Amino acid sequence: MPLTVNTFVSDGSVLLAFDMPQPDSTFAGFAIQCTPKGGEPYYLLNRLNFTNGVSKGTTPDKRVWTTSDKAPFQKYYWLHFPPEANGTKQFDYKVTAMYFQKGFGLKAGDSGHASVDLSEFASRFTKFTPGFTRGYLSSQAYATGFHNAAIRPAKKSIDFSTQPFEKQYEWLGYSARKLVFDFLNECLHDKSIQVDLFAYDLDEPDFIKGIVQLGKEKRLRAFLDDARSTPSPAPWKSWPRKRSWGLPVRTTSSPGTSVALPTTK
User: Fold this and answer.
1) Cβ-count burial of 189 within 10 angstroms (0-12 exposed, 13-18 middle, 19+ buried)?
2) 129 located within any domain
3) 94-139 pLDDT, tens per residue?
4) CATH code of the domain containing 59
């Protein structure tokens, strides 16, 4: 039985799973080559290799990326997040079993191929559109891509300009953020829509501007979380009382929740 490659597509990512006969003791792992549609092929990179050790004392600047034809992945699966996924949706993968040679170096064995179309993920669903965030602020991927840059000004506020942070928000929020703002914009443009909102830790300036506009048009009913576990000071706790949005509101409260409703007065 030759090496086979199975693929499982998600939102902007693909899980590659490999199957092959039991290898001998010279088996070193798998090299994975990716070819975006219309682009050049490249090998996926491995953070581990056969020459550079990694320990808790290894600093980020000393970590070396190595192409997987020289540092094969020693797993029978790999999850790939193509960096081109925002624009390109079709990818071809070639997975090759790599073996140690006598003396030094690696040699290629059998290969398997698979093609994916990331756009097929969303098309599976007819009743809703799924969306996911892309990564975590504390992830190695964020550190590599953005050098652990801040995502908001040092001084907390709810009306700062998000323009300097837009690329980070786009990467972190990925399709989930896009869906949220697409929905908000649809509500803003369709004057027949009334919105009920339950918000937790609401501090995104662009989103707040949108719901403020809905409130001014008397098309919003907002339930704002006021849990005791929320760190203090929390600016949103005082929004309804201060009427900082310029909206006439009445407030009620129950344990853990503040309710702000636009009034007709």
Assistant:
1) exposed
2) no
3) 999 999 998 788 999 999 999 999 988 888 888 888 888 887 788 8
4) 2.60.40.10
Kind and range of the H or E run holding 29: strand 27-36
Residue 207, domain extent: 140-262
**Dihedral over alpha carbons 177, 178, 182, 188 (to 10 degrees):** 50
pLDDT cut 90: percent of the chain above it: 52
Q: Can you tell me which residue has the tokens 């007709």?
A: 264
Whether the upstream peptide bond of residue 233 has omega within 30° of 0, thus cis, is yes
Backbone angles phi, psi at 253, to 5 degrees: -145, 155
Are residues 156 and 244 both part of a single domain?
Answer: yes
pLDDT (tens digit, 9 = 90+) per residue, 166-185? 999 998 998 899 999 999 99
